[in-house]
Amino acid sequence: MDPCPFVRLTVGNLALKVPVPAKPARTVIHPSSSPCFCKIKLKGFAPQTAVIPYIPPENNFPDAGQPQTLAATFHLNKEDIERLAGKSIFAGKICLKIHIFTGRTGATCGVNTGRILGKVSVPLDLTGTETRAVVFHNGWTAVGKDAKGSPASQFHVNVRAEPDPRFVFQFDGEPECSPQVFQIRGNIRQPVFTCNFSFRSTGDRHQRSRSLQSEQGSGRGWLSTFGSERERPGKERKGWSITVHDLSGSPVAAASMVTPFVASPGSDRVSRSNPGSWLILRPGEGTWKPWGRLEAWRERGPADGLGYRFELIPDMSAGSSVVLAESTLSTAKGGKFTIDLGSNNSNNGNGSARSGRGSSPGCSPRGGSGDFGFGLWPFGACRGFVMSARVEGEGKCSNPTVEVSVQHVSCTEDAAAYVALAAAVDLSMDACRLFSQKLRKELCPANDPLC
Fold it and tell me: Do you know which PANTHER family this protein is assigned to (predicted)?
């Protein structure tokens, strides 16, 4: 499998030195009591906001023993780079703009509460960054206007770009329609997997995937650990399963609904307090082995959302797990389910990930000038982007597109596990629909009165 070129643009190591004058004045900024933040902008991308820590003027930054921090991340594919360069006033030049404010983040009555301190513009030349890392700026720069007898403030920032190649997969139809999955590279579409959607429930065991049935064997014991197949009173959706096969027909991953999606008493919605859940499974030693668990529910708010939490299960016997992603997707517009370990991106309705470390064997940390350090994670030494899956909102045709970082794929089963996870996220959008709404026939077992 050949990956697609991507570039990861990171902004970090933020710090601000503001000299405090000998004589207090009402117009002077006192950083010890006035928090600072910045808005980081790149044309064509949503702006990102980050807090700027204050550094006393006499301190050096960064210290050798001081952990380095990541403030913002932008993911660029080849088309993004070409688009940015084409729209730039300067041929081949792109600028990252950082607006620095004093005061707290947010707005009152639609007006920003922060006061502008200064602006920093960092020119970017992304030529060649698809194959090599480039540091565009790493150090201090003056911001703000000089006041009489007072020097300008100093702002520290590191801006770098590095290759982040990814495998891109696309479902050739909705997951419940048992589609093929293609790998995308430029204009080339190559089939790599097939999906088989089925029902795993007491009354519909004959509809289960034969490959799933044969591979599970004696490994059914894990069901009682993570969920239940028992009949539950009231409104529920249960027993959905999707198996991913390679082109030889061998099962290489699966997503199995192990906790039914049940309407809360007196309502038509799946609540956060009682979510449904999926196990993401990988084959091993003649049976299926749990790799991760996805929980999903319907969030209340000005606009309903699909709440989710994904956790890695590195050692089922020890009962340990690590939450890698927890956020919300718009049920009306859809969005991106994303696992980006170490990213400080805001949610913006597209989903986000908690800070953590990677989930695939064979990963190793990278070094280099201005590289961002992360604490050791007990299950590997990976960082950065892991995967994303684009899903549509309710009632819309959804052919999920899945991006997976090359560093997290060492075999076909690795890629298939992320494809199965993407299918589970997409199917959760239907599983969390209000129970007053009907589902399409592909999602309903025969003679189900709720469909």
Answer: OS07G0133500 PROTEIN (PTHR31317:SF3), OS08G0163500 PROTEIN (PTHR31317)
DSSP state at residue 405:
E
Rounded CA gap, 410 and 6, in Å?
A: 18
C-alpha 313: how far from chain center: 18
Residues whose CB is less than 8 angstroms from the CB of residue 247 and which lie 6 or more positions away in sequence, other chains included: 191, 192, 193, 194
Quick: pLDDT tens for 374-392.
333 434 445 689 999 999 9
Radius of gyration of the chain (CA): 25
Give the separation between CA 104 and CA 44, rounded to whole angstroms: 26
**Which pTM does this prediction carry?**
0.79
Reduced to 3 states (helix: H, G, I; strand: E, B; else coil), residue 218 is coil
Q: Is 139 left (phi over 0), alpha (psi -120 to 50) or beta?
A: left
For residue 78, report the phi and psi dihedrals to the nearest 5 degrees: -60, -40
Q: Where are the domains of the chain?
A: 6-163, 166-443
Say whether pLDDT at 435 is over 60: yes
* Dist CA 21 CA 27 (whole Å): 11
Residue 50 has phi, psi (to 5 degrees) of -145, 145
Could you tell me the fold of the domain covering 6-163? Immunoglobulin-like (2.60.40)
